[in-house]
Automatic annotation (TrEMBL):
InterPro entries: HD/PDEase_dom, HD_domain, OP_Dioxygenase, Phosphonate_degrad-assoc. Gene3D superfamilies: Hypothetical protein af1432. It comes from the Bacteria. This is Phosphonate degradation operons associated HDIG domain protein. Residues 31-101 form the HD domain. It holds the Pfam family HD. Signal peptide: none annotated.
Length: 193
């Protein structure tokens, strides 16, 4: 798929993700996205951060390799792919937490006792593929980033969003919210129509 995505391509990817499992977990990609957004909304996040929670794993959908990443023992750098794919639709308030959510996992493993032991087996495996626990220098650099808190919040919702059969609001609910923070003028116009 060509990047960056159009709004129609993004919607199609999300709808299609209901048929694929979220890398090594027992929920679909869509269930994981909706549950992440639901957690953000529950915790009072603003529309941009709820949107980031919904879209944080779009990079996996673009590459089509969410399941292959773990099986092949590679890091597909889905956070970077996702940001590139979403760059024409959203601003930094959505993109920065997505860009940093993998680093946030590495940061939490370095700074929060017991965090690593709370991760699912698939998340522990991907942690190793993504560079492992941050060094002291990396943690200082991450903590100084103005988007670090948003990325850590997103990471926690990402970890929580793996519950089989959990009811969530619909994809259309979260797409409407995403349209409200989109920088794409045609998306703004269609949302108002």
């Amino acid at each position: 798929m060509n990047m960056p995505l159009t709004w129609l391509q993004l919607e199609s990817l999300l709808i299609g993700s209901a048929a694929s499992l979220y890398g090594g977990e027992a929920v679909s990609q869509l269930e994981h996205a909706l549950q992440s957004a639901q957690c953000a909304e529950r915790d009072g996040a603003d529309a941009a951060l709820v949107t980031a929670a919904l879209l944080h794993d779009v990079g996996h959908l673009v590459t089509g390799q969410a399941d292959d990443e773990l099986a092949r023992g590679i890091d597909d750098r889905h956070e970077q792919t996702g940001v590139a794919a979403l760059s024409k639709l959203f601003g930094n308030n959505v993109l920065a937490p997505i860009a940093l959510h993998v680093s946030a996992k590495r940061y939490l493993c370095a700074t929060e006792p017991g965090y690593a032991s709370s991760l699912s087996p698939a998340s522990l495996l991907s942690l190793q593929l993504q560079g492992g626990v941050m060094s002291a220098e990396e943690t200082s650099r991450f903590a100084a980033n103005p988007h670090a808190d948003a990325a850590v919040a997103l990471r926690r919702w990402d970890d929580e969003a793996k519950v089989v059969g959990l009811p969530t609001p619909s994809l259309s609910h979260y797409l409407a919210l995403a349209r409200s923070v989109s920088i794409c003028p045609t998306v703004q116009a269609s949302a108002a129509a």
